[in-house]
Amino acid sequence: MSMLAPLLLAWVLSIAAIYWITASLANAPFDTALENNLRVLAEQVKIQNEKIEIALPQAALDLLHADHTHPIYFQVRGLHGEQLGGDPELPTPSAEDMPVPGQVLFRNAMVGRTEMRIASMTLPLSARDEANSEKWILLQMGETLYKRVELSKEMIKGVVLPQFVIVPIAIVLVWFGLYRGIRTLARLQERILARAPDDMRPINPNEVPAEVTSLVDSFNQILSRLERNIQHQRRFIADAAHQMRTPLAGLRTQAELALRQTEPEEIHRSLEQLATSSERATHLLNQLLTLAHAERHGESGSDVRNSFAPVDLQALARDVLRDCVPIALEKQIDLGYEASDTAITISGNDFLLRELLKNLIDNALRYTPKGGVVTVRITTDHAPKSGGAATAIMEVEDNGPGIPDSEREQVFERFYRLSSHATDGSGLGLSIVREIALQHQARLVLGGNPRCVDAVTPGLSVRVIFPLLVQKQELQYEGDA
Fold first, then answer.
1. DSSP letter string over 443-457?
2. What is the DSSP string of 146-193?
3. Which of 43, 107, 360, 399 gives a 20 to 30 Å CA spacing to 24?
4. Considering the chain, what is the average pLDDT of its residues?
5. Model confidence over 137-183: pLDDT tens digits?
6. What is the DSSP letter of 71?
7. Residue 280, pLDDT above cutoff 50
8. Residue 291 in domain
9. DSSP code string of 80-122
10. So what's the pLDDT on residue 134?
11. Which residue, of 132, 152, 172, is where some domain finishes?
12. Is residue 257 scored above 90 in pLDDT?
């Protein structure tokens, strides 16, 4: 009914518009005929020496009064409004309705109880009196509105009466179409409600009316994004459960061992192991949460880029290094920083970029031996060899064991650990770096440390190359040339 009511209202408005238009159309030919008759009458008025004669033959008078029910009236009035000829019933126009000399003016007026259409014009007594408004005579001709009304009625009947057949048929057809469409949507609703909670299959757009195909396509896109999010959540939960099982079991074992100890030194040693294990579990959990946060932003696509803002890489690097200095001192590693004299700003997410650099430094400190060197470097390249736009480079170097060429692709996978390195890393650091770099259209370049000459510890250089200007770039993993 919400759609049929406007249709009925539009029908009523169209009838009103048709009535107004037909009335206007019916007036036009009758006004033209009345004006022509008035000008013919003016030609029969003879003015000689200010004497007015009306030479209207009897045949013309008979023609004007041929229709006794609705005759045509005419009138000629002199200088002082005196009746010179014709029918005295026609009223004299008011001052504002007095026609301009030489033109015909139409008006509606009541003659007795009958409304009439009257055409008026004025004629000068002589050519020299054209500027004297008192030397004009008035000619009028009028007729009843009966013929006009009858013509309007016939026109309205010809247009409106077919609508009484067409509109009900249209309403029935619209109702039938809506009923079919609503039934189709109702069946679609039943199928959706009958689905299992984990059923993310797309809806077949061929099973719905064409008018709602775009809505179904949008719904399918939402289902697809929801399915990807659910898969990421399931994978995160599975990975977290798998990775946390071992450290939690170790914590329980060490706690039980500490409870069985009686010597203070043994209890202290067990508590130290508990603290170390809890620290590792906390680090693993934090990395899992960081990876989940980065992937969630990656799924949002343009949403994360809408939150980008100018980020000063040098200020960001100094803040992150300040937090990492205590760990470097504890491991007796020289943690250095090199930067340009000018500000280096990119468009990005401050939180994610901090996590990226933090993971790079954490990996470098974890794999660099005691007494080693880790250097963080922030530079720019305003003339890239590829001829592209200027770039900002975030680089972390160490003199640890490095990554063999054969494993430089695998290290970006989750929980992948180098077989040649006996460390307690979680295998998530570079996965986090890759995900965040991808969201910032940055390139990752892995290579050896050119400052290392020891074959046993060739070192590692990880460079993240950001565009200084917004442009699309694919994430690549390359070795040094």
1. EEEEE--TT---SS-
2. HHHHHHHHHHHHHHHHHHHHHHHHHHHHHHHHHHHHHHHHHHHHHHHH
3. 43
4. 78
5. 888 888 888 888 887 777 777 777 777 777 778 778 877 777 776 77
6. P
7. yes
8. no
9. TS-EEEE-TTSPPPPTTTPPPTTS-EEEEEEETTEEEEEEEEE
10. 55
11. 152
12. no
Query: Residues 181, 211: contact at Cβ < 8 Å?
Result: yes
Strand, helix or coil for residue 339: strand
Specify the DSSP class assigned to residue 320. H
Which tokens is 77 given?
A: 């009035």
Query: What pLDDT score was predicted for residue 1?
Result: 55
- β-bridge partners, 95: none
**String of b and e for 113-125 (b: at least 16 CB within 10 Å)?**
eeebbbbbbbbbb
DSSP E strands in 264-404: the ranges are 309-312, 334-339, 345-348, 373-381, 391-398
- 471 or 18, which is more confident? 18
Rounded Cα distance between 43 and 58, Å, is 16
Of the candidates 146, 116, 153, 145, the one whose C-alpha atom is nearest the C-alpha of residue 22 is: 153
Residue 346 lies in a domain: yes
Domain of 139: which CATH number?
Answer: 3.30.450
341 to 316, 347, 378, 469: CA distances (angstroms): 15, 19, 10, 20
Residue with the bigger pLDDT between 317 and 385: it is 317
Domain assignment present for 348: yes
Name the band, by pLDDT with cuts 50, 70 and 90, for residue 317.
very high
Within 13 Å, how many C-alpha atoms sit on residue 449's CB side?
27
Domain boundary among 152, 177, 194: 152
3-state secondary structure 197-246: CCCCCCCCHHHCCHHHHHHHHHHHHHHHHHHHHHHHHHHHHHHHHHHHHH
> CA angle 55-57-63, nearest 5°?
130
Burial class (CB in 10 A: 0-12, 13-18, 19+), 273: middle
Question: Is the Cβ–Cβ distance between 111 and 90 less than 8 Å?
Answer: yes
Residue 114's domain spans which residues? 4-152
The CA distance from 464 to 384, in Å, is 14
- Residue-level pLDDT at 465: 92
Is the overall model pTM greater than 0.70, yes or no?
no
CA distances from 17 to 10, 14, 22, 154, 401 (A): 10, 5, 9, 16, 89
The pair of structure tokens assigned to 399 is 């003199």
CB–CB of 330/293 below 8 Å? no
Measured distance CA(431)–CA(446) in Å, rounded = 14
- In this prediction, residue 316 carries a pLDDT of 93
CATH for 392? 3.30.565.10
**Whole-angstrom distance, CA of residue 327 vs CA of residue 222:** 45
